[in-house]
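Could you join me in thinking about how sequence relates to backbone shape in a protein? We need material for that, and I hope you will provide a protein of your own picking. Once you have written the record down, we can walk along the chain together:

…
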Amino acid sequence: MGYFLAISAGFCFALNYIFIRKGMANQKDNGTFITMIQNFIFFTIIFGISQIVNPTIEEISLSAFFNFVIGGFLVLFLGRVTLFEGIRKLGSGNAVAIKNSSPLFTFIVAYLFLGEKLNFQDSIAFLMILGGIYYCIFKQIIGVENKKFNSNGKKLGVIFALLSAVFFGIGDIFRKSGMAEFNDPIAGVYLGIIVASICMTIMFFCTKDLKGRVHEVYQSINRNYMLAGVMTAIAMLLFYASLQYIQVIYASILVSLEPVFTVVLMSFMLKNDDKLNKHLLISILLIFIGTIILVIY
């Protein structure tokens, strides 16, 4: 049951990326605001129910609280904003493939600052993930569309996708540290969503775009962004449900299948946009195998 839930979570995350890309075709907004609102409402309900059934929030330590807050800021705010911008400029397949190299940055930070050891298996994993990133950027994105690389923002898209991988990778360190002290994943995610929602609201307020975003939500509903928000919420719920049956290491590996699902789905749902080819498949395969090695060993 746990394996099925984790795979389903990866599939729902992939659907989220596809719907985000489809929504961008008709709107300048990247969908970060509407999806965050949906996630906030959904997890407010889930968190409330979970606390009624099994109240735990009073047991949270100060350090766990700050780990969840920082993790939410890095992953759900900075990571999501940069990933969605990468998807707009590169397409779902390319951006998600680069973003899925985040375990590499997790380990780099852990190695430099937390005293993690680098063994032979880690070195092989590093080389495979770096090879996947290289192949995706220099063979797929630049090689296939070399003439367009500098003219239509794809260079900036690569930067955003890499930044999202960095934010997701570092953010996961804080979220895992929070989970080690306070084993309530729903509460941890909800704290992160609150922080990300506040930061996103402040960002749009400072750019004088908050009124426009709120107006779009109520007056011009983007069906694809709505579906993306639903898929994200379901995916997170399925992932944490899977942890009730299997270890987090196996759940993380199965969820990391999301770029594989993404490239398969985009060949059916984004026929006139993202293109599936051997370069992208090789990139995803290298990053996925490298991630498995890095997580297991």
Q: What stands out?
A: The chain has a mean pLDDT of 80. The radius of gyration is 19 Å. DSSP finds 13 helices and no strands in the chain.
